[in-house]
């Protein structure tokens, strides 16, 4: 392990985890690629962040290092590595912010994986294999202006006409929405109310990017858009996972989404820890490095504790996900993954925001600037407590896992 050249915290995680998981040579190769990609991303992410614009180089960098292949099986052109490697790669790629992680997570960990899990052979050939090569970008369209935590109240509708389905409605806050070649759109049947998932090409007539949401608090390098569907025609071949199965597909895909957010949040904590470790030694006040003032050491210690507390529920959920991915119809494993991904996401997102806050304090006034390495971590980390299900929704799910189904306050 000692002769590997990788970022220190990634190496430390691999070393700790090697007691629980035997990393294959191929998995180590994937982590080396993620490590190099993370280095290559630092400059473009920073430059685009300061300009408050989407990082247009993200797809190119992801393609160069094969990042779109991470959560995908070998038979579809992926790397076929364990979920734990996916988590570690995403942790490493999020040390400077959540923008790239959001882009990658939605495209690969959520949408490509959804087509892998639910798509038929023709859909895999037409969508999954090109997506793995990065020939187009995916988006995931569930949320609407009036349906967020409660997707069942969605207003986007479909009706069947011969061999096609006609979709009308809108989707809001859609990551990659403005750059996507294909969006997995969830819509409700007029009449029966059953929810179905569709693979919708963005070049379809009636598909409009109504708005790029650029006035966000952070996450500037990731595209967030509002989409409108005005009589969009979708061939019946583009129904994903069968008519009426949409909600099941959405919830299963959100398990991957929550794992992705948890991993990125661990990366944010890594980033905060790296930043304060340097700053505490370099910044001199009262004639000595601020790291020699014990109250500053407290901030460093808190971030280090946060890292430990965020890593293990996330890593353990990833280890358990391996069993789930081999038997995705097993009800016990479905329940377990649903709960573990909620726990990991809830814990890691709160600790990421807390860590960015402590890091900002160590940086003082400079920390309050986006020019410092911690300003971006602070602005980006806040959204992790909202997207892929809010803190409150995760808490309801966690409580129900303890109290039982009679106490489920969320469906
Ligand atoms: C930057 C960004 C990117 C996003 N990307 C995507 C994407 O790619 N695809 C997509 O489909 N969506 C995406 N979203 C949407 C995101 O998933 C939703 O914002 C989130 O699910 C919350 O929904 P909402 O914003 O409508 O809040 P609401 O549902 O209106 O919730 C408002 C508040 O009420 C609370 N609340 C609601 N119901 C309950 C309840 N039963 N009990 C207790 N509290 C409750 C919530 O926890 C929250 O605090 C994104 C959001 C953001 C900010």
Provide the fold topology.
Layout: H1 8-17, H2 25-50, H3 58-64, H4 83-93, H5 99-118, H6 121-133, E1 138-141, E2 157-161, E3 164-175, E4 182-189, E5 195-201, E6 207-212, E7 224-235, E8 239-240, H7 246-282, E9 284-285, E10 288-289, H8 294-326, H9 331-363, H10 375-381, H11 391-403
Structure description:
- This protein has 411 residues and is α+β, with helices and mostly antiparallel strands.
- It has three domains: 8-137, Acyl-CoA dehydrogenase/oxidase, N-terminal domain (Butyryl-Coa Dehydrogenase, subunit A, domain 1, Orthogonal Bundle), CATH 1.10.540; 139-240, Beta Barrel (Butyryl-CoA Dehydrogenase, subunit A, domain 2), CATH 2.40.110.10; 246-407, Up-down Bundle (Butyryl-CoA Dehydrogenase, subunit A, domain 3).
- It contains eleven helices and ten strands.
- It has helices spanning 8-17, 25-50, 58-64, 83-93, 99-118, 121-133, 246-282, 294-326, 331-363, 375-381, 391-403; strands at 138-141, 157-161, 164-175, 182-189, 195-201, 207-212, 224-235, 239-240, 284-285, 288-289.
- The strands form two sheets. Strands 1, 2, 3, 4, 5, 6, 7 and 8 form an eight-stranded mixed β-sheet that branches. Strands 9-10 form a two-stranded antiparallel sheet.
- A hairpin with a 2-residue loop joins strand 2 and strand 3 (164-175).
- The radius of gyration is 21 Å and the shape is globular.
- The model has no long low-confidence stretch (mean pLDDT 97).
- Flavin-adenine dinucleotide binds at residues 106, 140-143, 148-149, 173-175, 219, 224, 383, 386-390, 392-393, 396, 410.
- The site of flavin-adenine dinucleotide has 22 residues, from strand 1, strand 3 and helix 11.
């Amino acid at each position: 392990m000692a002769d590997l050249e990788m970022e220190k915290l990634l190496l430390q995680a691999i070393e700790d985890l090697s007691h629980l998981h035997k990393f294959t040579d191929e998995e180590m190769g994937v982590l080396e690629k993620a490590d190099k990609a993370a280095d290559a991303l630092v400059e473009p992410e920073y430059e685009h962040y300061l300009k408050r614009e989407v990082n247009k180089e993200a797809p190119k960098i992801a393609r160069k290092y094969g990042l779109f292949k991470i959560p995908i099986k070998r038979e579809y052109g992926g790397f076929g590595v364990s979920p734990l490697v996916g988590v570690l790669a995403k942790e490493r790629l999020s040390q400077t912010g959540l923008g790239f992680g959001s882009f990658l997570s939605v495209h690969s960990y959520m949408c490509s994986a959804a087509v892998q899990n639910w798509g038929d052979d023709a859909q895999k050939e037409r969508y999954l294999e090109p997506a793995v090569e990065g020939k187009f970008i995916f988006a995931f369209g569930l949320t609407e202006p009036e349906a967020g935590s409660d997707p069942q109240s969605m207003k986007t509708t479909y009706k069947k006409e011969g061999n096609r389905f006609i979709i009308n409605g809108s989707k809001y806050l859609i990551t990659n929405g403005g750059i996507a070649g294909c969006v997995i759109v969830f819509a409700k049947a007029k009449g029966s109310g059953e929810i179905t998932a569709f693979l919708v090409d963005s070049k379809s007539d009636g598909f409009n990017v109504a708005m790029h949401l650029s006035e966000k608090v952070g996450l500037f390098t990731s595209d967030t858009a509002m989409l409108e569907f005005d009589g969009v025609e979708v061939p019946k071949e583009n129904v994903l996972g069968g008519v009426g199965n949409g909600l099941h597909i959405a919830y299963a895909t959100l398990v991957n989404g929550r794992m992705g957010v948890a991993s990125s949040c661990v990366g944010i904590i890594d980033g905060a820890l790296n930043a304060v470790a340097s700053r505490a030694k370099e910044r001199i006040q009262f004639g000595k490095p601020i790291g020699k003032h014990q109250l500053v050491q407290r901030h460093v210690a808190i971030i280090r504790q946060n890292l430990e507390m965020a890593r293990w529920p996330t890593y353990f959920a990833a280890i358990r996900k391996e069993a789930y991915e081999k038997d995705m119809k097993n009800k016990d494993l479905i329940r377990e993954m649903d709960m573990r991904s909620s726990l990991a996401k809830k814990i890691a997102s709160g600790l990421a925001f807390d860590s960015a806050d402590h890091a900002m304090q160590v940086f003082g006034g400079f920390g309050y600037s986006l020019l410092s390495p911690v300003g971006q971590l602070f602005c980006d980390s806040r959204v992790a407590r909202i997207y892929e299900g809010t803190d409150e929704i995760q808490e309801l799910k966690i409580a129900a896992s303890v109290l039982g189904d009679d106490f489920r306050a969320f469906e």
